[in-house]
Write a structure and sequence with these properties.
Layout: E1 2-7, H1 10-20, E2 27-32, E3 42-43, H2 52-61, E4 66-69, H3 72-77, H4 79-85, E5 90-91, H5 95-102, H6 104-113, E6 121-124, H7 127-137, E7 142-146, E8 155-158, H8 161-172, E9 184-188, E10 194-201, E11 206-208, E12 213-214, E13 217-219, E14 223-226, E15 231-234, H9 241-261, E16 268-277, E17 280-287, H10 294-298, H11 306-314, E18 329-336, E19 363-366, E20 369-372, E21 375-378, E22 382-390, H12 393-404, H13 420-426
Parallel strand pairs: 1-2, 1-4, 2-3, 4-5
Antiparallel strand pairs: 6-9, 7-8, 7-9, 10-11, 10-16, 12-15, 13-14, 15-18, 16-17, 18-22, 19-22, 20-21
The protein binds adenosine monophosphate (AMP) and glycine.
Length: 428
């Protein structure tokens, strides 16, 4: 089989490596890919992940037997529909289903209509009405979300009225998140540990993957700005069997059925961002795709051929596949460019990597690198995802951090406390 993967970050590198393990696969292509991915797949770096026409043409050129669309924006734009129209098998939801991530107003209204537990909320299309509502309610912190995709940054948690007013104005009037800010959701602030659960689904059968925990803030101790994710661990100790059972009953199955009912059957990987609140698990967000960097810790623990799973989903027979997981833990530490998530420089030479962009003892998924004349250069905010597995979480974390020390580039930074909260929770 020839498989084309769309995207170019650490998540796509993890997908490429899992696909690479399959005996059914002859050749892997990736658009645009990155320096690390180019060591395992043929990359087409001038085709952007959002270039629907370009990707359809590429799928024809490489005779793709399966196209895996990984990022949110091409899914929300309808890349899967365009590929299916040309007869290509795909992994990822169509446009009608991807709206579950593409519009927060859609997803909140869906949860309300089908009684799926989530934070209380109100939707506003006018800044004045939103501000008046917040003033009247007078409860802080309050959560303000732009309706559309905002590169994972469309959420502001306001601690008082001034911050809330600023947030509403900057989203709706200054359009800091672009067109995604023409409507906003004002939401109740929830508390509790967060859990990410990615699920394989064909719209009938639902198979949750191993749970994981993201670390979104830039600095140790969950300080600093929100980022795309500075590290992950799997499994997540807060996701106990009891919580899993409750999520299946009150959240996962109802969501799949709600989407079917709305004529928006979801096929692919549905990501549930959950908060385990004192009143039980609630949905913080849905993503219509694999999470990044959750995928980097989840897929190494998958013990079933991913091509079998993806093709079964495409053919609506996920029920026939036995999805197995290794009884191990995984940890991923993100090495980022100095300044990220604000301004940072690129083009720094990375030392410590071998010809494949790897070190011994861990797998280095490349998130933002370029391969140039035998060297790896930084090409993004998040640069490398150093990932190790182990019999225990402690073992995986120690291994991952000892490999981080072997790698260097100017001004690099990483969190030193990835997994610390999970380890403490394990001991409870
Ligand atoms: P998101 O960009 O949707 O992933 O949200 C970013 C982060 O904001 C989440 O991971 C949570 O930590 C936080 N968050 C979002 N919604 C809420 C909420 N209703 N209550 C508390 N925290 C929230
Ligand atoms: N790690 C969160 C996300 O992929 O959106």
């Amino acid at each position: 089989m020839n498989v084309l993967v769309v995207g170019g970050g650490g998540r796509e590198h993890a997908l490429v490596m899992k696909i690479h393990e399959s005996e059914k696969v002859d050749k892997i292509y990736c658009a645009p890919g990155n320096g690390g991915i180019s060591r395992y797949a043929e990359c087409f770096s001038d085709i952007k992940a959002t270039d629907i026409e370009g990707v359809v043409e590429l799928a024809k050129k490489v005779s793709a037997d399966l196209v895996v669309v990984a990022p949110d924006d091409p899914l929300v734009l309808g890349m899967v529909d365009a590929l299916n129209k040309e007869g290509f098998a795909t992994f990822g939801p169509n446009k009608a289903a991807a709206i579950i991530e593409g519009s927060k107003v859609f997803s909140k209204d869906l949860m309300k209509k089908y009684n799926i537990p989530t934070a209380e909320y109100n939707v506003f299309a006018s800044a004045i009405e939103a501000v008046n509502f917040i003033k009247e309610k007078n409860e802080y912190p309050t959560v303000i979300k732009a309706d559309g995709l905002a590169l994972g940054k469309g959420v502001i948690i306001a601690q008082n009225f001034e911050e809330a007013e600023d947030a509403v104005k900057s989203i709706m009037e200054d359009k800091i998140f672009g067109a995604s800010g023409s409507k906003i959701v004002v939401e109740e602030f929830l508390t509790g540990p967060e859990v990410s659960v990615l699920c394989f689904t064909d719209g009938k059968t639902l198979k949750p993957m191993i749970s994981s925990m993201d670390h979104k803030r830039a600095l140790d101790g969950d300080q600093g700005l929100n980022t795309g994710g500075m590290g992950t661990v799997a499994p997540n100790p807060y996701y106990t069997d009891k919580v899993a059972e409750e999520c299946m009953k009150t959240i996962f199955r109802p969501t799949i059925e709600a989407m079917n009912n709305e004529g928006r059957t979801f096929k692919g990987c549905l990501y549930f961002g959950l908060m385990i609140t004192p009143k039980g698990p609630k949905v913080i967000e849905y993503n219509c795709r694999f999470g990044d960097p959750e995928t980097q810790v989840v897929l190494p623990l998958l013990d079933t051929d991913i091509i079998d799973i993806m093709m079964a989903i495409y053919d609506d027979k996920l029920d026939t596949v036995n999805v197995r997981w290794k009884n191990e833990s995984a940890a991923c530490v993100v090495m980022a460019s100095g300044g990220y998530p604000k301004k940072y420089e690129t083009g720094k030479e990375i030392s410590g990597l071998d010809a494949k962009g790897q070190v011994s003892g861990a797998f280095v998924y490349h998130a933002g690198t370029k391969y140039d004349d035998g060297k790896f250069l930084t090409a993004g905010g998040r640069v490398l995802n150093v990932t190790a597995t182990g019999k225990t979480l402690k073992e995986a974390l120690d291994q991952s951090y000892s490999c981080v020390k072997k790698i260097s580039f100017e001004n690099h930074h990483f969190r030193t406390d990835i997994g610390a909260r999970a380890l403490a929770a394990e001991d409870q």
